[in-house]
Design goal:
Length: 287
């Protein structure tokens, strides 16, 4: 607590009272601490790919560029690290826009069943084109065959309407499905559900992956938090995807959370306020 005292003094000089104002600075100090922690995290996150690129570039300059076996591989690593840094900076920019309130939301009334189906169709297309490419490539060895997975849909029959910024919402769903794929075992099933409660619509995505330990579960939406840092980096992750997802969903007046059993899999949930769809008659009445 921060205290401020002032004396109430009459014209005669007589002191008739004391006013004490107490400021609770706990929140302020917490914000300041979090801000410092965040800057320190960003610096570390960017230093890691930069120092690794520096050593590859040094090796190339020292003569590795002449080695046709080694050089392409080293260049590849520096390229991947550059791509990851660009992704991280873009993620940081969208977080910063949301923090400062300058991110504009383009809200519209959307049929969630249709939108979720559309998103999942895109993933099904990717699975199909991967399978075609593998079938057509006889030189492909076991180790280069991409991971197999399938998507199962369990949707309520009733149309569910929500008011969302479609682009931003689709980024969140893409991100969660990509994580589910990333952490799924070969041949894993990703189950996507859509259901409703009294006044909320709930979308969920479950995988059969390695799961998230109980102690880590409350933190997976924190900026830069990863259960396994090395694994996330190796897969090109920035550790910011779920933090951005949380910001977006909260801006849409929804909630996002996760449930998981180690070794069995994880489920990510998004709940949004349910909107009554406009009756077509109403639209005609307005005209
Ligand atoms: P990343 O870029 O590391 O994937 P995210 O913010 O998307 O960052 O996720 C944060 C962390 O949460 C991941 O590093 C991972 O440890 C964990 N995680 C997210 N989704 C899953 C999942 N479906 N199964 C297991 N762990 C997950």
């Amino acid at each position: 607590l921060h205290a401020e005292f002032s004396l109430i003094q009459r014209e005669t000089g007589f002191i008739s009272g004391i006013v004490c104002v107490l400021h609770d600075v706990t929140e302020q100090q917490k914000n300041e601490r979090e801000r410092r922690q965040f800057v320190s995290n960003v610096s570390h996150e960017l230093r890691t790919p930069l120092t690794s690129m520096r050593s590859y570039l040094e090796a190339l300059t020292d003569g590795a560029w002449k080695d046709p076996e080694v050089a392409p591989n080293f260049l590849n690593v520096t390229q991947e690290e550059t791509e990851r840094m660009i992704r991280m900076i873009n993620d940081l920019l969208s977080l910063s826009r949301m923090d400062s309130g300058t991110a504009k939301l383009d809200m519209e009334l959307v049929n969630l069943n249709e939108l979720f189906n559309y998103t999942l169709n895109r993933f099904d297309m990717m699975i199909k084109s991967e399978a075609d490419a593998t079938a057509g490539d006889n030189n492909r060895t076991e180790t280069t065959t991409p991971k197999q997975y399938s998507i199962k849909r369990e949707f309520t029959k009733r149309d569910l309407w929500v008011e969302i910024d479609t682009d931003k919402f689709m980024q969140v769903v893409d991100n969660i499905i990509n994580n589910a794929i990333k952490y799924s075992p070969d041949g894993g099933v990703i189950t996507c559900r859509l259901l409703e409660t009294n006044n909320h619509v709930i979308l969920s995505i479950s995988d059969q992956g390695l799961g998230i330990p109980k102690k880590d579960l409350p933190h997976v939406f924190d900026r830069f938090y990863r259960v396994d840092k090395a694994r996330s980096r190796a897969q090109g992750g920035t550790g910011l995807g779920l933090a951005i997802s949380k910001e977006v969903i909260e801006k849409l007046n929804g909630r996002i959370w996760a449930d998981s059993k180690e070794g069995k899999g994880s489920t990510f949930y998004i709940s949004l306020p349910y909107q009554e769809a406009y009756e077509e008659d109403d639209l005609w009445d307005e005209n």
